[in-house]
Amino acid sequence: MNATSPRSSAETLSDDVDVPAEAAEAGDKPLLDFDDVLPHIGEFGFYQKCLFLMMIPFAWFVAFVYFSQIFITLVPEGHWCHIPELQDLNPDERLALGVPKTAELGYARCLQYDVNFTELVRQGVRQADPSWPTVACRHGWEFNRTEVPYESIAAELEWVCDNAALPNVAQSVFFGGAIVGGLLFGWVADRWGRVPALVGSNMVGLAAGIATAWAGSFWVFALCRFFVGFAFDNCFTMMYILVLEYVGPKWRTFVANMSIAIFFTMAASLLPWLAYWLADWRLLCIATSAPLLLAALTPWLVPESARWLVSQGRVEEALVIMKRLEKSNGTAVPAGVYQQFEDSCIKLKKQEDADKTYSVVDLFRSPRLRNTTLLLIVIWMIVSLVFDGHVRNVGQLGLDVFVTFTVASATELPADSFLTVVLDRWGRRWLACGSMVVSGLFSLGAVAAPPGVVSASLAIMGRFSVNISYNIGLQYAAELLPTVVRAQGVALIHIMGYVASILAPFVVYLSVVHPALPLLILGSMGVVGGVLALFLPETLDQDLPQTLADGEQFGRDQRFFEFPCCGTRPMETPKPALYRATSHRASLRASTRGEALRSSMIHRGSISSRRSAGKRSSDDSSHAGAAGAVV
């Protein structure tokens, strides 16, 4: 999320800039990329503010898609065997007579006494003899409606006891769909554009989400959730990336973090109360899916990615959009800038077509870069597992699940706000380590604390800390991996995070073995992940690696106990025009390929880039960092 100010127009856009002899002989002008033109169009003018507000429905969509399954499959902690012969008794009498007690859970959830209840009721017996034989539930279950005031699909289809793992299996199927959907819509975005991918992912989520309301069996439900998973991330991230592309570098940190902190957090905090108010899992499916229909209006409201258009050779269409921004913002772009931009795009497109193609395998060919890549994969898998584990563990904290979920979701706001303020001051390495370790310690503290408010509060603080780690994660990867394979590398890391998320529901399910196990595992993994982060190099105020050789050498000169917040930040030194032109080539490739952007949208297709001897300038760092901010 580096959001350094863009170069001044005098430095990069004037036609009479001093050019070295070699460049002058070739008749080259400084090459312009999209970020060079943005200051003239307006970095955060009226048009960009409108785009920022248009992120609201999409942020709500992704919150609904991600979290709604928790409340669709919610099962009250209080459930016990249904015994038809005891239905004329009040609930307390039914429990006292028909259900044995256990030391851990109070009344057993899966056992009843194996006696003649009709005869016992006729004799006036109202208290069970603990020595009576027991048997598994024969006639289904009763559920405590004071905990969850509606019947979820899990309660309706009785996914408890021997079938208690089915909601967790369905959640893992959802993440499997997210992997497939990410690959599919990443390809669609590269082939046909960001807007078609945005609309398509939302339409699939709409259809599958509404179809979920008619699911009458586990397999139908799981199939529907698999296709809902297609929309996860993509239904928001496509819009997220589009808006970041049109916002100037110095505003990207604000837009990237505040769109999550405000819009996403608001939707996540309101979702449990929507479920509580509707009190019907089928209506909840429809209510959280139907709004996705609004995405069909996107082609008329949201411009296609100018960078993608340029990457496809459709420069004229990109210029039309840029001129529309100029008009809406009431700005005036100097004469010749658009022509110079068009010439730059055409020249770099020709160069790119002749470039060598790199693959993600190249990340594993040299030892230091291989270690960095493996560390990033393992750390991101841990962050994803811990984050999703905390999200789904709220029902195990022993308090009202609706209140607890709301409070835990609200931690996104202070976490994102905190990160916006400190990330570019404190750096990535120690902040990633600290937030993960603190998350782990809070989680382990929740295990040691007595059940109730204290334990739940510590667990929620663990969620707050891992929110910070999650938001650092993929940006860190985007900054550490070399430009030539950045897109594929970040995509690989993101997909491995989905693989870890598939396991998260089963970590939470371990509460049936012992209630402390989920937080014990999440806490231990948080500490391990934080320690591992210390073995990565710092990227704050560093020229980011462009070639594979750069990636192999990156961070060699850094000391282990080096704290960016305590040192002297390097001074910006003016760069000659030829250097800027070389940097622009890398920057334009970053722009046209979208290589440092968060999520499964960080494209799966191969990235082409020629080897350049020049390092990336601080503006490239700004582009990769700010656009790489993550949810």
From TrEMBL:
Q: Which UniProt keywords apply?
A: Membrane, Transmembrane, Transmembrane helix
InterPro entries, from UniProt? MFS_dom, MFS_sugar_transport-like, MFS_trans_sf
Give the Gene3D superfamilies listed for this entry.
MFS general substrate transporter like domains
Instruction: Kindly indicate whether the keyword Transmembrane belongs to this entry.
Output: yes
Residues forming the Major facilitator superfamily (MFS) profile domain are 52-541
Mention any Pfam family matching this sequence.
Sugar_tr
So where does this one cross the membrane?
A: 50-72, 169-188, 195-214, 220-242, 254-275, 281-302, 373-390, 402-423, 430-449, 490-510, 516-536
For this UniProt entry, what is the primary localization, expressed as one broad class? membrane
Q: What are this entry's molecular-function GO terms?
A: transmembrane transporter activity
**Region Disordered: start-end pairs:** 605-631
Cellular component GO terms, alphabetical: membrane
Q: How does it sit in the membrane?
A: Multi-pass membrane protein
Q: Where in the cell is it found?
A: Membrane
Q: Which PANTHER family match?
A: SOLUTE CARRIER FAMILY 22 MEMBER
What is the name listed in the Swiss-Prot or TrEMBL entry for this protein?
A: Organic cation transporter protein
Task: Print the organism lineage.
Answer: Eukaryota, Metazoa, Ecdysozoa, Arthropoda, Hexapoda
